[in-house]
Amino acid sequence: SQQGEEDPQALSIQEGENATMNCSYKTSINNLQWYRQNSGRGLVHLILIRSNEREKHSGRLRVTLDTSKKSSSLLITASRAADTASYFCATDNNNDMRFGAGTRLTVKP
Amino acid sequence: IAGITQAPTSQILAAGRRMTLRCTQDMRHNAMYWYRQDLGLGLRLIHYSNTAGTTGKGEVPDGYSVSRANTDDFPLTLASAVPSQTSVYFCASSPTWGVVPQHFGDGTRLSIL
Question: Which residues of B touch A91 (CB under 8 A)?
């Protein structure tokens, strides 16, 4: 069964705008990761946030984690057409890793 | 370039046939994983291997088997394919079990008719 659920399922924005994707989960976790998947390709790891962290940055990516609400968000700032992809959250609970169904992001040039 | 190689990239298979999906990594990772990705369901773990010589069942293991004779190879076998096994299959690896992130191959698209 899925642990993480992304919201929205699909998001379409203009280049230069910010994109925010959310992930909710059900049980306690050790860490939460965000992955990106381009069409026809495998998943690529973007960022990992541990359960004792609240916010993490990597370039144009900002991830937050609220363990009290069992939720995380991924913010992509100043989006580019090349950011078009599916984004997945994955929760890790004692080596039990579960993926959500993903958010399909389309960035229009 | 170091990484994971999966073969074939796609396959159409008649129901009842046997099929082995190949996965090879050159990163000397101890842990390897097989997932299936279905629309609306995300990735689900089929089988995993902590290290060469050991394997374990994931969330959806029925109808699949794996072997880990050496560090680099982790083939997935469908003994008698059924239409519900139509999916995209991804192999992944990580340095050790439980260490993230995982590194993914580009997948095998399998259609069972």
Answer: none
